[in-house]
Every structure is written in C-alpha cells, then in structure tokens.
Structures
1.
Amino acid sequence: MKSFTKQYLMIHEMNENSDVGNHNCTFDDGLLSQYTYGRNIDNEKIYFICPSFIDNGVNDIGQKCMNIEHIKKLMDLGIEIGAHSYYHTKLWKLPDLKHRIYHIKKDTDLMLKWFDVNLGLKPEKFCFPYNFDLDGLYKAALVPYGFKEYFGNERIDIDKNYATNLGNNP
Ligand SMILES: [Zn+2]
C-alpha cells in the first residue's frame, strides 16, 4: 500500500544553497546543476531524464544539461534514473487528441530506444513533461510499456514553496 506521507519535491535548477530538507527528491530534465549539487544528497531521489535535452546539452529554456557520462556516474552511485519523454513536447499545442496520442507513442518508442542504447537501462518510472498528463490519457497510452510508477503535479514544487529564486520558469 502506498503511504500518504511519501511526498516528493519537484526540483529543477539547483545551486550550493538549495535546501531539500529530508524530503524525497525528483530532479526533472537532467540539468547539470542537479548532478553537481544533488547527487550526494542522502535522501531518496530519482533523476528524470529527457534524452533530447541530453543530446542538445541544454533544455528547452537553455539550462545546461548533463551528458551521458554524468548519468552513468549517477547509475554507478546506485541512483534511480527515470524517464521524462524524449522531446518534452508541449502536447497541448498539438491540434487534437489523435495527434497527441500518435506523438506519445512515437516519443516513447524513441525514448526507450535511447535509454537502451546509451544506458542499457529500461526505466521503471515516468514523469510527465510539464506535469501535463492529458487527464489520464498519457498514462493510459503508456500502459503497454510497463512503467511501474508515474509522477506529475502531485509533487511539491520546490521553486514555489521554498523561494529558492534560481531563475527557473514559474
Ligand atoms: Zn521537464
């Protein structure tokens, strides 16, 4: 049974002053600062990686990202790596439901291939890009892929709640 007290922080850019308390941590996008300031934090933590950001070296708002070697180092440290879509697409901008579902399947196939080829890993946890889950349809579309747990806007946004003022998008 899932515990009601098990809440996760949603974390983006970090610095040496980032304070996560004793909360469970989820790190979105694969940002380099999360590698630098997050990997030695002793809390339960998951890094949600978005392959296109890793390949580009930056995310969609220009924040510096890890490379594949950084992610492998995290794996060596026993840290869980989860998936966060391949393209991090703003699905609400696609014209209709048909296009959205089509995109999700293409995106997920590409993402899992990238994880397999580059990390030799099949991720078990998935985090919706922008926490946008299409009212449950995204999750339904992912059923055939066998993810075990999903993450979205049930998480506590550290930027909003802890006012870390790191220059992230609101
Ligand atoms: Zn993201």
Note: The first helix runs from residue 32 to 38.
2.
Amino acid sequence: MKIVKGFWKKGCRILGAVLCLAGLAACGEAAVESGATVESGATGDVQTVETAQSTGDATADAVTDAVANAVTDVATDEITDEGDAVEDAFYFRELTREEIDMITGVSYPAEDEDAQISLEELRYVHILHVDFDGQTREGELICNVRIAQDLTEIFAALYEAEYAIEKVRLIDAYGADDNRSMEDNNSSCFNYRVIAGTDQLSNHGLGLAVDINPLYNPYIRQGGIVEPYNAVDYVDREADFPHKITHEDLCYKLFMEHGFTWGGDWENVKDYQHFEKVE
Ligand SMILES: [Zn+2]
C-alpha cells in the first residue's frame, strides 16, 4: 500500500509539474531553449543543462513540442521512473540574448565595463518549487556560474521535500528593487546592488547570495531597522510562525552542505533570509 501511495504521490507531482510547464507555454513565457545541449547528469541526480549561447527565442513550436514530449513521457513510463520530467525542470544555462537585454539597466549595470561581474559569468537557473498552497510552481534565478550547480541541487532537494517557497522570480520583475521583492516574499539571487545602508557591493551583486522567503526571514540591520518593513511580526525568532529558517530547517542544512554561510549566524546584523558562498 505504501508503494501505491508513493506511486500516486509521485505521479501527481509530475503531472502537476507538466501542467505547470504547459501553463507557462500557453503564456508564452517558457524558458525552453532550442539548441540546448545536455550534459548527462554525471555530477549527480540533477541533470545539468548548459547551452551554447542561444540563437534566440524558443519558438512556439519548440515549446509545444517540448510540452508534448513531456506529456508523452509521463503518459508512458516516466511516472514509474523517478520523475524524469521533474528532474528535467531543474537546469542551468548561459543567459540568452533576450535575458541579457531584459536585465541590462535593471538588475545588471547598463554599462558592462562598470560591473565587477561579466554577463558570461552569470547563469539562468530554472527550478520548480512548492508554493504556500502546496502547488507546483516554476521558479527562475540568475546566479554566478560558481554556484549554479549548487542552487540546482538545493532547489531540487527542497522540491522533493515539498519545502514551501512562495515565489522565485527574477528580481527584474520588481524593477530590481530589493525592498519590493522582499515585501512580496520573493526569493531571489543576482542583483547588482550595494548592501543596504552602505556603498559596498552586496554578494547578490556577484550572484553569490540567495534570499529565501524574505518576508518571514527578515534582514535586521544595525539599529534594529527591519527589511522588509512589513516583516516586523517575524523579527522575534523565538516566536512560532511558519517558513522560519532556523538551524533545524532543511533549507539551512542544504545550503550548509553545499558550503554556504547563513546571515542568521552573523554577529552584528542578522539576515535570516540570506545564504552566500564566497570562497
Ligand atoms: Zn541577501
């Protein structure tokens, strides 16, 4: 009986993911890339996809084909095969021309030579996550190539554990305004910006830091300033509330396993949403 339950659970999760992908295609926002080359997942469970620089938009046909193939796969043998359709949804690749145009002047400096990180060092990361309603959602991040594999594996493990993350959108959807993103409880990574209250480049500016469920895990600056402003109910870390990152939290444990440090462990300020990997 346990096997049957597991079967249905896995099957439903995969179908949810496929519906999610199909819905995205219908909206014309699919990140399916034509011309992608697949390096087999020799580095781990999560398949890694790196493309040569994309030649352009995924066409509607390519998107339709990709979804049709995914549906076909699920309809045949994939439900019983550890959810390949789900694993395929976790990948990273170089930025497309369209993505470069979209972020330039928003989360990336308009003048390339001014930046301390090049566009070639950035990667687009595609994931699935379970939202606060238990629904499968697509998520997108941009990060430094140095942590792209880490993020792909961490988010895959969080998804497998049905760890709830409300939103994972590119910060450009918020005009690269970190406050707006945090207020909306959006989890994100790359944003070429300084540390709040300073003129020092944040590790988000190098694509080496990630914020998770920031509304429930605020940044408490020196002087007790809380960011985002609407997170005051979540400053008391002894209080009982959902989505709280602690040392017992799966998210914390996964980031630690991958060599990150946590802003909740900092001495002078506390940034409970923040994980970074700076070697
Ligand atoms: Zn952060």
Note: The chain is about 30% helix and 15% strand.
